[in-house]
# Entry
Amino acid sequence: MNLVFRLAWRNLWRQPRRTWLTTGAMVFSNMLLVFMISLQIGMYGLMIDNTLQAFTGHLQVQAPGYIDDQKMRQTVPDAVPLAESLREEIENVNVAARATAFALVSSEERSYGIAVVGVEPAFEPGVSTIPGLVAEGRFLVDEDAAEIIIGAALARNLRVSLGDELTLLGSGRDGSFAAAVVNIVGIFDSGIADFDRSIAEIPIGLFQDVFYMNGSGHQVVINAGGIDGVAELQVRIESLLPAGQGLVVHDWDALQPGLQQAIKADISSAFFMYGILVILVAFSVLNTQLMSVLERTHEFGIVMSLGLTPGRLGRLVLLETAIMGLLGLVLGAILGGLVTYWFSVNGFAYPGMEELAAKFNLPSRFFPQVSPLTLLLGPAVVFLFTILAALYPALRLHRLHPVEAMRAV
Amino acid sequence: MHMLAILFRLAWRNLWRNHRRTLIMLMAIVLGTWAMIFMTALMRGMVTEVVRDGISALPGHVQVHHPEYRDDPSVANLIPVSDTELSARFSTAGFRQWATRVRVPAVITSEYDSRGVTLLGVDPAYERDLTFVDYDAVSGRFLESASDTGIVIGRKLAETLNTEVGKRIVLMSQDPENDIADRGFRVVGIFDANIQAFEENYVFAGKATTQKMLRIGDQVSEVVVLGDDYRDVEAEFNKTLQLVDGSVVVERWIDLDAYLGTMLGVMDGFVLVWVIVIFLALSFGLVNTLVMAVFERVREIGLMLALGMRPINILGQIIVESLLLLAIGLAIGTALSWASVQPIKDGIDISIVGEGLDMWGMSSVLYPELLLSDVILANVVVLILGFLASLSPAWRAANYEPIEAITKV
# Structure
């Protein structure tokens, strides 16, 4: 074995330029793969976290059908006590009840139709980033106070500021007329004008009074911290729900179907590109190894007539390729890791990405994270294809006849 | 000229001396070219869809608004010039299509539920190609005139409101004095859109009816102009500027939607990056092939030099060889990518990831778009870079010392 290895090593360096060029192709694509995969995985994680933590949460308890229709009548009875009991039963998760209605919000000068959300002031910060985005004033405090927080864009459009009064007009759960006068105690700014213009929050107690909810809500939102273990949590919560009310638990994929699929779409197009890259490298390796076998026909003829079997020769060729592939893998992973590390410190940005990123709840600079997975996934696949590419030249040796081969120039 | 013919013939024959190597390299180039162009066509198709849908949501390539309208899209920010006057000016300017609209936020209420929507007061005669609604596909009917008293809403909204064609709903908005402006409408049509958000957010009513309801006389919110090609709207933009004064702002769609605008720019950059990455992956193999080709022929090259062939011609021959190889590969690859676009020209259904694409603002049928400019870009970039990559091996070949080269084993 030692001898075969030494042979393979020496054979590789007979044509150092060729070997380096082939290895170079591997190193190039490995670097690219390491960087791109690190970037992607980091991006998806951020995308999921930012989107879910903003408002949706990882799981929601709802009335059946609410997810599609979002009608006022599709309620979760005793939402606040239910949230309370879930909080007590399950550790390390944030739970809060919500209720949602569409209402016309009017200032002295203007009116806008928006979603008014009733939230639990004490627990909402655990399931949404909105309380943390309050730029002026404060978040809600009292469960029943006639208070509201609105977005900065809406405040601008309604021509109101902190301390002003707003009138809410809408229809209650039973379809009757619902109205309230509330005080603006806080203004939040998410940076996305459309979002800021579309939503306002009031205490859930007040909401239940105004919209005749009779103690019910529309969702109980659960923030599990991350997406790991959400499935088990879902099963557990389902078992804790009061029987006979037909309540359902939706996971984040059902709540935000676009999210998972946007990621899938992105993954599939990215993998198409990676595939092309890997195949191109494989062609490069095939070319090199075939050439190196063909130019040694004479030599192979001699060693075969001395008794070396085609199988062993084939293994020699494969070993040469494996050494080259390993070189490409190690160098590619190291260089790719270094490049990625540099970007993980300094951040990566692409011209024009800011606007695109904002659409997906992403920051405008990415910080790709190096992990063993991202470091080795791409290079390992390249290595595999390298070996596959060398199979043809290696198997070709079986067709070699020593005498004819020796005559070859 | 004669010399070039000889060089060409030499290069051609040299290529096929080692047909296996040439074929492998050719396959790599073909695959690379195919991937470059096909993938670009898919991406272009995607972006075009996003932009087209985006424009159809806005809609209009060039738009005229009150300066404050964008930050505060309400009834308070109407165009100060009357609709009659605007119509007189725009109808004589020779635009392909234009329309004036009332566009304000409103709350729509059925006996079951209410929602916030964008109310579009339109004159159906002017809107046929301007909106995302296909008049003929509306269940029920679309509006018939500007003073039609019916309303057309989206399928999803109709489900949420539990309403249908023939039933009544109430629209609530405000007039310029901030008094509630409301009116009952009969639902006369329900439209389907390829983007669910459109079905939820937009309702269409007659322009004159809407003006009466909002008590705004003869005023409108916006003028929209449609050009021939969304990529180039400068002509329409300049013409529109001539028609209005400083009391309004004229904007192109790229100014109105930063996301869509940058998307196009990012796409152009991405195509170039993708082409270059593929080329780099190819270049290692290309240089390798050339280096080998030169290396095998050292004696021959020495002989030619000794016989009086000038080094520049040796250089030329190697470069011609490389360009020939690239040109054949590019031709086949381009043809192949054209052929693979043909069967999916009428759109491929990618609805497996459909909702995810919704989030990007695109529908689930993808129409690949093979642009001549992209094909040319890919071909030219590969030829130029290929030329540069073959310089080094060619240079080396041209600078052999004849005696040394001939005696080399």
Q: What stands out?
A: The mean pLDDT of chain A is 87. Chain A touches chain B through 73 residues (CB under 8 Å). The radius of gyration of chain A is 32 Å.
